[in-house]
Amino acid sequence: MTVEDLREELTAIDAIYPGCIEEVGPQIFNLSPPGDDELIIELSFPLDYPDIKPDVIAVVSKNPSKYPDERYLEKSVNDIVLKVFRKGEVCLFDLFTELEEFLYKYESNQNENPETASGTNEEVNKAEEPDTHETQETDHFIDRKTFDIQVKDPLEGWTQSDPIVDRGSTFVGFARQVHSVEDAENYLEILKTDRKISKANHNMLSWRIKRDDGVQYQDCDDDGETAAGGRILHLLTMMDAWNVIVVVSRWFGGTHIGPDRFKHINSAARDAVIKGNFVAADKNSTGKKKKKK
């Protein structure tokens, strides 16, 4: 992979995790966990990346009460790099995903220690706090038959995933064919007129559009769920899905489920895309990554 190819990967990651990557030197970058600027991970990328893994230069804690053990964190980040790295395949997206899960568990363990500074638990759960939508609705759980009847008109033309329920939270994906940005925006507004969808805590979305003349459009919206829209866009890119808008609605059940929510968001989005036949059968697998040219 050339330096230009590395920059393409970094550009894609920056679209998913804005502001989480900073170049500090030739082939050297600082990474910060999404939504958390109190931990800095300095990585060095060899010129032969991805044939050779990136090196962890340092892990720096800007908040010792939250991240007190830099040596342990550095060892753990090195272990994560070894886990996600496969020769010839880019690994930054997987690195961010594994890092989020590790830090969630790390902070949860810190909270169980009575010597941990107070307030950390609030910080851990902050990223998963519901927005100002009506969160205490007792009818936000989805029964598929009831849901189909109640949103028949707003859902006309949309493909719906099977609901995913985990610890009270419900995730449902929706996919629809579009041929212009105007199509995507109009269909989205119609979808949001449904009573249940309008009360979802998050309606995360992405679209990818390719016109007949080759002009391409793509965009995403996290709707308050850090990097969720970017993850859906990444999924659509990996599936090579075009001329489709995907919305994943989440109804928060009151229990924080950590990084598992991102797995459910991706699963709901993927299910809707596949059920809507927006991707060829040989593209259903999202496990392939960019190889060295």
Automatic annotation (TrEMBL):
It is found in: Cytoplasm. Gene3D superfamilies: Impact, N-terminal domain (3.30.230.30), Ubiquitin Conjugating Enzyme (3.10.110.10). Pfam families: Impact_N (PF01205), RWD (PF05773). Residues 109-122 have a biased composition (Polar residues). Keywords: Cytoplasm, Repressor, Stress response, Translation regulation. Residues 8-106 form the RWD domain. PANTHER family: IMPACT-RELATED, PROTEIN IMPACT. This is Piso0_005259 protein. It comes from Pichia sorbitophila (strain ATCC MYA-4447 / BCRC 22081 / CBS 7064 / NBRC 10061 / NRRL Y-12695) (Hybrid yeast). The gene is Piso0_005259.
